[in-house]
Amino acid sequence: MINIQTIDDYSLSAKVYITEASMPKNKVLIVNSATAVSKKLYHHYALFMSNQGYNVITYDYRGIANSRPKRLRGFETSFLEWGQQDFSAILDYAKTRFTDHTIIVLGHSIGGTIIGMTEKNKDISGIITIGAQTAYYKDWAKKHKTKIYILWHMLLPMITYIVGYFPGKRLRMLEDVPKGVIKQWHNRRHHENMKIQLERKGVQFFYHKCMAKLLTLGIEDDPIGTEVAIRRIHDLFENSDKKLEMIKLADVPTQKIGHFGFFSRKFKDSLWVKTLQWFDAIS
């Protein structure tokens, strides 16, 4: 485990997997986590890619898991800072540590969304996003929409307001999450276009600066990463050579994947190999 300093001097917890493969591929893979998820979720996938010749970096955003302060109540951050500051710092580290390497990124959920929040995305050669979306509730799967809306946009904000942060670990709902992240995500619920909404508040985006080859993946049974939801982020990468693909359960085959299941080891020889082959083709 290492610590990586951001430009505003915040210390991020990260793990670097150095490949011991006989034929290294001179590529460094950065894994951007989902919102309330520790980098531990991606450990086995990172090991798999490392064994295939990749150097891999996983990390926790500020306020999450091993990058959280001792006291989360009163701690200010948002997913904009995760992109502008945290992901930027990881890109800088990758360039410095692996000077002759091609930089590629796998962004899970918000981890795909924040790629457009830093101008440094111009240093990336290849991107795979999985379930990357904008939390606009009308995009969610119809049969789950009401349940998720009540959870995300009623219960989570209420609990967060009372506690001062979302106590996810105590409630056995992934990791604790800073108040600002919950508030910003909650404010996304009625706005169809994330970019326009936040640009009106002075936020600058850099999706158009990214020239990386892009593969946008959606999962058939992901209730929030529906095709219409992931297309919103996919379309923002206007200058990328890009492809969008929905993974069907029958093609894997499996009974369930959902929003988090992609990183289960049972998909090592199917879904993980799919990403490996795609990244291998990036020059």
| Helix content class | 25-40%
Major β-sheet profile: 8 strands, mixed
Please give the alpha-carbon distance between the first and last residues: 29 Å
- Report the total helices: 8
Oligomer: single chain
Query: Would you report the number of β strands?
Result: 10
With strands numbered from the N-terminus, the spatial order across the biggest sheet is 1-2-4-3-5-6-9-10
Q: Roughly what is the average pLDDT, rounded to an integer?
A: 95
Shape: globular
User: What would CATH call the architecture?
Assistant: 3-Layer(aba) Sandwich
Q: Strand portion, in percent?
A: 15-25%
Q: Which residues sit in consecutive blocks of at least 5 with pLDDT less than 50?
A: none
User: What are the secondary-structure elements, in order, as H or E?
Assistant: EEEHEHEHEHEEHHEHEH
CATH level-1 class? Alpha Beta
Radius of gyration equals 18 Å
Q: Which structural category do the helix and sheet elements fall into? A: alpha/beta
CATH topology: Rossmann fold
Q: How many domains make up the 3D coordinates?
A: 1
